[in-house]
């Protein structure tokens, strides 16, 4: 019988697109890339020497590293420093847009850009990413006019990125295999149980043991960690156009007001503003 806590395998595992085709260079320090992600497909774990900005133009993607995972709707973007191994999985089918950045050449090889982070996406940044990934996607030898346009767009995109407000939406993941499986199960279906006791019982472990592992592995307790999961999933549901009352119900809240109170405590803003879809 399969372990109910093990994460489900993706329907399709995809290789990264040819890195040499998109790699940034001193002449082209910011490159754009577009890729369609079928539902439940996954780009296998990989890394590269350059940094990456990932934005879901449509649909929702989940980007995971060894110790964190990020759910990415179109109103947010994820920055991944160079050398960090990561996996990209489509929660629902959509279009993924990426900027590849020579961080050292762009003065983005210092804190806070040395760690993964989620940032707000302005209408301007979104349009710049779209333009770069559509017009010069994989063009290894553009004409001088396009090359100059790429440089101008890239400079402006990085300026917008530096100004973008950070958002605490990353979800820490443990190294311990059993706890990792439990965390993946919560990520897959966060409304299934509301308490650590219920999740521990499903995993066949004692509540005390799981609580101790959370403190040891993640430096927090189950409640605050699950709150980050709920916020990320609420954002995913909001990106699909789900009403706030329905989102609250889907995530196990007794009322929309209780859900609103949780969001205000967590991020200092009401759900309608925090989960607003991009223009």
Features:
six-stranded antiparallel β-sheet, Jelly Rolls, globular, 12 strands, 2 domains, Arc Repressor Mutant, subunit A, 10 helices, alpha+beta, six-stranded mixed β-sheet, 279 residues, disordered N terminus
Radius of gyration: 19 Å
Q: What is the count of DSSP helices, taking H or I runs of 4+ residues?
A: 10
Structural class: alpha+beta
* Series of H and E elements: EHEEEEEEEEEHHEEHHHHHHH
> How many strand units?
12
Number of separate domains:
2
User: So what's the oligomer here?
Assistant: single chain
In whole angstroms, the N-to-C terminal distance is 46 Å
Globular, elongated, flat, extended or rod-shaped: what is the shape? globular
What does this structure look like?
The protein folds into two domains: 12-167, Sandwich (Jelly Rolls); 176-274, Homeodomain-like (Arc Repressor Mutant, subunit A, Orthogonal Bundle). Residues 1-7 have low confidence and may be disordered. Strands 1-3-8-5-6-12 form a six-stranded mixed beta sheet. A hairpin with a 3-residue loop joins strand 5 (60-64) and strand 6. It starts with 11 loop residues before the first strand and ends in a 5-residue tail after the last helix. It is globular. It contains ten helices and twelve strands. It is of the alpha+beta class. Helix content is 39%, strand content 22%.
Give the topology:
Layout: E1 12-14, H1 19-22, E2 30-37, E3 41-46, E4 51-56, E5 60-64, E6 68-72, E7 76-80, E8 86-92, E9 94-101, E10 117-120, H2 123-135, H3 144-163, E11 166-167, E12 171-172, H4 177-188, H5 196-203, H6 207-218, H7 222-239, H8 244-250, H9 256-267, H10 271-274
Parallel strand pairs: 1-3
Antiparallel strand pairs: 2-9, 3-8, 4-7, 4-9, 5-6, 5-8, 6-12, 7-10, 10-11
Helix pairs in contact: 2-3, 8-9
